[in-house]
Amino acid sequence: MDPRAEHQLLINRRHFFGRSSAGIGSLALASLLNDSRPASAAPHRNGIGGMPGLPHFAPKAKRVIYLFQSGGPSQLDLFDYKPELQKQFGKEVPKSVYPDDRKTTMTVGQKSFKTASSLFRFTQHGQGGTYFSELLPNLAGVADDLCVIKSMHTDAINHDPTITFYQTGSTIPGRPSIGSWMTYGLGAEIANLPGFVAMTSRGSAKNGQPLYDRLWGSRFLPARYQGVKFRNQGNPVLDVYNPPGVDDGTRRAMLESLSKLNRIKHKEFGDPAIQTRITQYELAYRMQSSVPELTDLASEPKHILKMYGKDAQNPGRYAYNCLLARRLAERGVRFIQLFHMGWDQHGGLPQQIRAQCGDTDQPTAALIQDLKQRGDAGRHPHYLER
Amino acid sequence: MARWLVDPSNPLTSRVIVNRYWQQFFGIGLVKTSENFGVQGEHPSHPQLLDWLATELVRTKWNVKAMHRLIVTSATYRQSSAVSPSLLARDPENRLLARGSRRRLSGSVIRDQVLAMSGLLAEHQGGPSVKPYMPPGLWRSISNAKYVQDHGDKLYRRSLYTYWRRTVPPPTMMAFNAVEREVCIVQKEQTNSPLQALTMMNNITFIETSRLMAERMLREGGKSPEDKIAFGFRLSTSRFPTSDESQILRDVHRRFSQRYRNDATAANALLGVGEFPRDSSLNAAELAAMTMLASTILNLDETITKE
What we know:
- The complex is a heterodimer.
- Chain A is α/β, with parallel strands linked by helices.
- Chain A has 12 helices and 7 strands.
- A 5-stranded parallel sheet of chain A has the order 5-4-6-1-7. A two-stranded antiparallel sheet of chain A has the order 2-3.
- In chain A, strand 2 and strand 3 (130-133) form a beta hairpin.
- In chain A, helix 8 (248-269) runs antiparallel to helix 9.
- By secondary structure, chain B is mostly helical.
- Chain B has 13 helices and 2 strands.
- In chain B, helix 2 packs across helix 3 (47-59).
- Among the domains of chain B are: 2-101, no CATH class; 204-306, no CATH class.
- Chain B has a two-stranded antiparallel ribbon.
- The radius of gyration of chain B is 23 Å and the shape is globular.
- At the A-B interface, helix 1, helix 8 and helix 9 of A face helix 7, helix 8, helix 11, helix 12 and helix 13 of B.
């Protein structure tokens, strides 16, 4: 048999519905999904990009603010009240609780693993009676707005594969991050700010574990879905400001002539990519004004700044990022992710964990209250404990 | 195994390879799924052509340069990439190759190209990786390592030599869809975003190269402003501007000149971007105005597109 004909015969259902955007399969599928979609499920405001036909149910959440405490906060000292540990204090941890295959290079040489209970006092809060340690007084104040999940775990025992798993669903690098999938599927709400923003802050306790671009990367998805990482010093978005000596009038004159020249090219060549390029420069110009507006905190009332704490106006700090997260959410950014470093307490836990909670407790609670009082919280921010 | 891979009676290896060359030159391989020739892969658009190229590669004893020459000197490759609305509607992806391909250059080629146009490109080959301009605190912000930027020639080497830290790759390259290098990848979709425009307009490398290109335009471009502008335009597009284009560029150049003649501080601020010393024999206002004009030309769709 002719090998080409043979290959043709192998075309199956997956081919038909799979592949290219020009394929009849995907077109038919998209229109089917569109037709059967309830009107209420239509993306609110103007969805930009995103898959046709999504979302396929009416969404309850509008946006996500994901506060990732990176390094591994000690759950025993924060949320997970373990009275039995006090009784077991100083005894060896049973193998059934801490088997050898969970030991890391750092601990495998250790001869004895003695039980230590938390130094901190736990009390119940809210109608749900959720336990919080004394390290989190502000978070305890919004207890009923939180859902504490105590069963999360990963197979990996080291930081890198574990946080890669949390953000991408796989311990092995190479898959898109959760925010990239979100933007890929649902598109962005607005055009003059990125649809997915990541921000990082250093913890007060220690430098701790590094972060990696893959945590907000798009990997095999197109690069426009990757999280735009706001820099924690200087301009938040790279190259968003004009170079020194270039004022707005000069920039506008440059962009007007650029647009005229690109239009001439488009007329001659007909390539739709030129049209895209023209739009891209218009958007870039809008971003040049929307980003400074975003980070200008002059419009924030004093009591709001006070609520987020002493670091509310210090770029690069967790509190500042929390406030910025609210401002991003208000402006329609769909997926906002904060990474706070320094949660990796081995020695010196009592002092270090106090410092870390000092960074996060007040601003996190402030963010929840701030969103709630604005009545547009959608869902509760997810305080991830790992 | 090695013998089996390159045995003349096994055309599979050469099919996969020539398809990747084709992808490199045309943007899309004859088999679009260049990473997959199996059952899940796509049927080639031109099966006989692919077969012929594959056997030709074997016949020429796997001569890669000869294969590249064969492709780039073909009538198909040398077609104009202009497209009519009807052809665009019938073949949006140009799979049937009734026109030349038109593709945005990669981030590293865009950078190398502006370095070359400005005359800054350090052309010597080999040697260790270099650390060109990066945003301050790039590594420190998320890792415990510190990026120590190089100076002099090392700022202007081809992007191939740029030091690549996989956990924090160079952000300007990433904005232009560079591959992260954490996993092997055969093709990466080329997309456009406003961040690319911001890089092209404001990034230190692109402002510094605009200034150096402006110095060349003023020194080598001829006597009249039109000639100087045409010289710069030709440097980046390999053609002279039409009279309409020339008019637009002259108009905006006049506005830039006016601005910098009236504001010496602004002119000097703009000319202070980048470490390469400026040609002090040139008038600051003139050079600043021409720098903005060079920047306009560098940002043209045509400059960053292969057509």
